[in-house]
Design brief:
The chain is an alpha/beta fold. It contains 8 helices and 20 strands. The strands form 6 sheets. An 8-stranded parallel beta barrel has the order 6-7-11-14-17-18-19-20, surrounded by 4 helices. Helix 4 packs parallel to helix 5.
Length: 414
């Protein structure tokens, strides 16, 4: 749901995602968001059925050890003194309703690596600006900022070889990733990095001496896909894990609204895909292979939780066989006509993993203001809500979101 227009951890992979697990009372030593030595527990969610779903229009649009807690891998007491009512996202011993805001960028596709020809600099060079924005989100109640990394590949973010294959990160990309984590620490806010977007599937083009590389030809070729993951995804994940502030990394959102870059039928009973008209769409099987490979790499190099930013409940079955920790879906007025906001995850047949609404207007919907949206999701068992977007929000919208956090208290604060 991109109203902001583009121009032209470590937290423990197996950190449980259900509040019920905390009642077991003992956890294996792991990191927490605040860097203390806290724990994780094992457990398996129930299996979700793959029933079919009706059609209709769609909406568009924790990794690691978390600080120097000390000790070994022996069990320690794990008590959550303020668990979220009705469940949430669990990191270490803390189960919270994951409340946050989409940042989503300062420079679209330029925050990590920069775009020199357009005088767009990365996080390191514009640290003061990013620090102000992160602090502003935190001051208005956000515990998490969803931050887009490579929604399109252009400028200096990624280096390509003579064959047009990804060969590595640009000169400042790694330092920009680590500076973002440092700034998050300073602002006392946590990050959900969104690696890719359906926008990446626009055809390659040149705008004002800047080449933007479309990734459809990369992800549909096994060797080129491997190069993208090995030389781009893994170094980014490694940069996070090697940061002293890696405990600020809540989760990876592998891709924003992948369904808008897909065509053809769903193998799991969802309606057919309806791609954005400006992309080079790929089949479900091709996107699934790309996401599976990316997730496998993230699991190898990062302990942060993982999700996929689905465009809407229309395709609620799309990623049920991928190795993600929780589901995220987006909401706007068009989606709401067919998949209303005031239904619970169980009403939509989702019972195996937590659900976070990770993109909805800060102004609310035509039928419900933002306060009503948040109250509905909080009371119906959703695990979190992340509004779109901080830089679009006006003061009264920010005040409404802060009022929600203040009213709910520590159960919505990491």
């Amino acid at each position: 749901m991109n109203t902001m227009k583009s121009p032209g951890s470590a937290l423990g992979r197996s950190a449980l995602i259900t509040a019920a697990a905390l009642a077991l009372g003992a956890c294996r030593l792991t990191g927490s968001l605040d860097g203390e030595a806290e724990g994780e527990q094992g457990g398996a969610p129930p299996v979700r059925g793959h029933g079919g779903q009706g059609g209709g229009e769609d909406g568009q649009g924790g990794g690691g050890d978390g600080g120097d807690g000390g000790g070994d891998a022996s069990t320690v007491a794990c008590v959550d003194e303020c668990p979220a009512n009705g469940g949430g996202i669990t990191v270490g011993c803390k189960t919270r309703f994951l409340f946050g805001m989409n940042y989503a960028w300062h420079n679209f596709a330029g925050d990590f690596g920069g775009i020199a020809a357009w005088d767009k600099r990365g996080v390191t060079a514009e640290a003061e600006t990013h620090a102000k924005h992160l602090a502003g989100m935190r001051a208005n109640g956000a515990s998490v900022a969803r931050w887009w990394m490579l929604p399109e590949i252009r400028g200096e973010s990624v280096v390509f070889d003579e064959n047009g294959d990804p060969a590595g990160l640009g000169e400042t990309t790694r330092s920009d990733v680590q500076k973002a984590l440092e700034l998050a620490e300073q602002a006392d806010i946590n990050l959900m990095f969104c690696l890719f977007s359906f926008d990446n599937f626009h055809p390659s083009r040149v705008d004002g001496d800047v080449k933007t590389v479309g990734i459809s030809p990369l992800v549909t070729d096994a060797a080129r896909r491997a190069a993208l993951i090995e030389n781009v995804v893994r170094p980014i994940a490694q940069a996070v894990e090697q940061s002293p502030y890696r405990h600020r990394m809540v989760a990876w959102d592998v891709i924003n609204e992948p369904e808008l870059a897909m065509t053809g039928p769903s193998p799991y009973g969802d309606p057919d895909y309806a791609p954005d008209p400006d992309v080079e769409p790929i089949a479900h099987e091709q996107m699934e292979a790309f996401l599976r490979d990316t997730i496998q790499a993230l699991r190898a190099d990062s302990q942060a939780l993982i999700t996929i930013g689905s465009a809407s409940m229309k395709w609620s079955l799309a990623w049920t066989t991928t190795d993600i920790d929780f589901y995220t879906f987006h909401m706007n007025d068009r989606v709401n006509r067919y998949w209303p906001y005031n239904q619970s995850p169980a009403d939509y047949g989702i019972t195996d993993k937590p659900v976070v609404m990770s993109d909805f207007p800060t102004a609310g919907l035509s039928t419900a203001n933002v306060s009503k949206l948040l109250e509905s999701w909080y009371s119906q068992g959703y695990a979190g809500a992340i509004s779109w977007a901080y830089r679009d929000a006006v003061p009264n919208e920010l005040a409404s979101m802060k009022a929600f956090v203040d009213a709910k208290g520590c159960g919505v604060r990491f």
